[in-house]
Amino acid sequence: MKANHDIMESISCLDDEDLVEKAYGGLLATTDLIQSKNKKIIINTHNGGRRKDFNTFLPVVKGIYIPGSPRYYWTGYVDPVDFPLPETGCVYITPQFKDVEFEFISIKRINSIPEKTYCKCKNQAYYYKAFHTLIYKSINEKPFVNESHYVISKTGDIYSVVDKLKLRESGDTEYSYFSLKWDEIDANHYFGGAISLLADRRYLWNIRTKEETHLGAQAIVNFGVEQDMVKSLVFARDNPLTATGRKRPILHWVKSHKRRIKENIKINIKKHLRGITEFKMGELLFTITKPVKNIKV
After folding, report:
1. pLDDT on residue 217
2. Domain-located, residue 88
3. What pTM did the predictor assign?
4. Does residue 62 sit within a domain?
């Protein structure tokens, strides 16, 4: 099924202290969950079944992407100007339900869609496998994962793939309907949004934060930001931390940005970085990557 085309605006995580708290707190809880279960986590699947599968959580371990600046993106469509598309990636989703602690979608490019699946797209260019994952607040509730496949045409249109085996295994018309609707929602919004935002990263400054959790796992976040937020980061680095708690460096960054804008403090990035693209603030390691410049040929 061909997905609908819409233009949406991404979250701007660094504009909202509460969103930063929830997103980063949820990531810490998820990385601790992965570590504590020794890579044997029972998950609920789209068809009502259960299984042990750590692969669902590998992208989170490698680093999740959270837009730090508002960006417009397509759902159901990818602009061919962004070809070639990312191989892999993991994007944060603001939890849709009150009982969900952390939500994300991870994508992986594959060579073709699996057997016993069907897609109407005739001019196929890219094939993806996606995992839409919900981690619940209650430790008694198993994580939920919707595993699906998508095809992107040469013109950038996104098509959901009908998994005949998935529907047959459910043996229940209610699950069949739910599974189809979930795949359709992901194709129209979350998968399309994830692939577009991941492709968009090349045009932004990327700030990677890395921190060890108390169980020894690493919490890694990639923020895509405009240059103004980079100026505020170096401003925050040069000012002492005043808050307490594990999340204070990112919150300090957000507060410093608001203060810098309010007081109209000018920052020369080249002067302040002086070739340094990596530094520590509190217990958090920050790595700064410049965007790729458009070159006219």
Report:
1. 76
2. yes
3. 0.89
4. yes
